[in-house]
Amino acid sequence: MSRSVGEVLRQDAALLWHPYASLSEPGRVRLVRGASGVRLRLDDGQGGTVEAIDAMASWWCAIHGYRHPVLDRAVRDQVAEFSHVMFGGLTHEPAVALGERLVEITPAPLQHVFFCDSGSVSVEVAIKLALQYQVARGRHGRTRMLTVRGGYHGDTFTPMSVCDPVNGMHSLFTGALTEQVFGPQPPAGFDRPADDPEYLAWADALRAVAAEHRDQVAAIVVEPILQGAGGMYPYSPACLRLLRELADEYGFLLILDEIATGFGRTGTLFASEHAGVDPDILCVGKALTGGYLSLAATLCTTDVARTVSDGPGGALMHGPTFMANPLACAVALASVELLLGQDWSAEVSRISAGLTAGLAPAADLSGVKDVRVLGAVGVVQLGGPVDLPRLTEAALRRGVWIRPFRDLVYTMPPYVCTDEEIALIGSAITEAIAEGN
């Protein structure tokens, strides 16, 4: 390094804002010196380094780990040709090839792709599509989204408006955001049957909300099966099937936000497959590029695409500068092919079994409210807010990097973790929680 570690960290604290962090009282950050496989190499503050398994897959995107030779090569090969061109009036093979592949692997009705800069922007685009669709249908009063409490859809303004308005991260903006229509949060539990009394009560309540606002709602927006940053909260596929029924009954579009759940994370390639439900609009991101570059996509049906294209304006009114960036498209295609070229389902099942076994002892700890696993997602929910600095440090001493939030200590590890690495993640989380009790 050209500068000392201390100088870099001092400048970081003085200049740089980190996610959901104070600039006046910044929390501790650790300097990354390298990353390969599933491990981060962090500066230890004493002139050396310490390695830690990245149990977060860099916020759920680095499913193949770091410095994967296939993905490295895809980036190098594209750089040798060109790194970026505008997508207005131009196209390129990486975008076309990736679009073809996404249409092949997503639910069959989805036939058209709009590339976006990030997951949050893909939700913005999906909502724009829904609004333009309803205007083109002559339904000018349909300007609101219907969603359920507990969700999270991104940090830009319109996605913030469909995040949980009370317990979410964006309650400070209440009053400035579009007022959307919120139904109750689905009852917890992936395995909850459709004849369960709590499910039936929820379904009746949601039907009432949809009926009341039938002339105001353009689309339903939800994360299928697993609410991510809103609480790592799984719910029954029966709930998703009801949402599809309500959309069909009242002429709403169904937007599924699979930014966190797509590409195998919950055990199916896309979480909607658990319910056998096809959306009208689908948002994907995060794992799309394997964590190499920021890229997302909004897919839609031909009905949606043609209706918007033939409506007022004659186009979807959105066009990011870095739309369909060739580098991002090239590495995304390589990442998707790398995933589908292996028995990814068996790998996710293996990780699920390992997390189930590794986190099970945490259920017996005082202060633990719940332990749950769905696919390659493991969660320990505490009875109160996490002590972020203490838990992070305790896990790091055991060789695992985690980033707890709210009352949750969780992991979404890379799919390439070995059984031994998954076991270490489970024991590190359990021991870190126990250490504070």
TrEMBL record:
It is found in: Cytoplasm. Keywords: Aminotransferase, Biotin biosynthesis, Cytoplasm, Pyridoxal phosphate, S-adenosyl-L-methionine, Transferase. Substrate binds at residues 59, 152, 286, 319, 403. GO terms for cellular component: cytoplasm. It catalyses: (8S)-8-amino-7-oxononanoate + S-adenosyl-L-methionine = S-adenosyl-4-methylsulfanyl-2-oxobutanoate + (7R,8S)-7,8-diammoniononanoate. GO terms for molecular function: adenosylmethionine-8-amino-7-oxononanoate transaminase activity; pyridoxal phosphate binding. Catalyzes the transfer of the alpha-amino group from S-adenosyl-L-methionine (SAM) to 7-keto-8-aminopelargonic acid (KAPA) to form 7,8-diaminopelargonic acid (DAPA). It is the only aminotransferase known to utilize SAM as an amino donor. This is Adenosylmethionine-8-amino-7-oxononanoate aminotransferase.
